[in-house]
């Protein structure tokens, strides 16, 4: 089992990398070597980040559909890129990573949101992920 701080660093790196992918449109594998040269990260955090990156990238359409279904009072286009990626990572962990309980995935998503997004965003991320946790939508992912 990975230490809490290792997983936190991995989530941050996954967010950073996935954000870059949105801007470039590259396949997820194409820029990893350069990314890791630029952002020094220990091997365990790197491995977990790559698990998140690969999983989120592969399932992004399904994750987005689930996220969009849980939006209350928001159009999908209104969700910021950083928030959308954090929601994808949180939902992916909730549905596809066995040793991460949904409550932990949600709390971690909130903490990463506090570091990378606007002040109102943690409440938004919490609301969306909790709606997904309380629905049976997340059980169909994977």
Q: What would you say this structure looks like, in words?
A:
The chain is mainly alpha-helical and 142 residues long. It has helices spanning 4-24, 32-38, 43-69, 81-96, 102-116, 121-134. Helix 5 runs antiparallel to helix 6 (121-134). The radius of gyration is 14 Å and the shape is globular.
Short description:
With 142 residues, the chain is mostly helical. The chain is built from six helices and no strands.
Low-pLDDT runs of 5+ residues are 137-142
Strand content: under 5%
CATH class: Mainly Alpha
Number of domains: 1
Per CATH, the superfamily is NusB-like
SSE sequence, one letter per element: HHHHHH
At the fold tier of CATH, the topology name is N-utilizing Substance Protein B Homolog, Chain A
Radius of gyration in whole Å, from Cα?
Answer: 14 Å
Helix-strand makeup class: mainly alpha
Number of distinct beta strands: 0
Number of helices: 6
Features:
70% helix; single chain; 142 residues; mainly alpha; N-utilizing Substance Protein B Homolog, Chain A
Topology:
Blueprint: H1 4-24, H2 32-38, H3 43-69, H4 81-96, H5 102-116, H6 121-134
Helix pairs in contact: 1-3, 1-4, 3-4, 4-5, 4-6, 5-6
């Amino acid at each position: 089992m990975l230490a809490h701080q290792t997983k936190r660093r991995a989530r941050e790196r996954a967010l950073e990398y996935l954000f870059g992918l949105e801007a470039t449109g590259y396949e997820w594998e194409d820029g990893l070597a350069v990314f890791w040269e630029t952002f020094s990260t220990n091997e365990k955090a790197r491995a977990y980040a790559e698990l998140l990156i690969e999983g989120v990238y592969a399932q992004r359409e399904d994750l987005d559909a689930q996220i969009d279904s849980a939006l209350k009072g928001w159009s999908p286009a209104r969700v910021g890129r950083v928030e959308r990626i954090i929601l994808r990572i949180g939902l992916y962990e909730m549905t596809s990573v066995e040793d991460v309980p949904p409550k932990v995935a949600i709390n971690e998503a909130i903490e990463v949101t506090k570091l990378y997004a606007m002040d109102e965003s943690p409440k938004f991320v919490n609301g969306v992920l909790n709606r997904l946790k309380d629905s049976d939508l997340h059980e169909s992912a994977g």
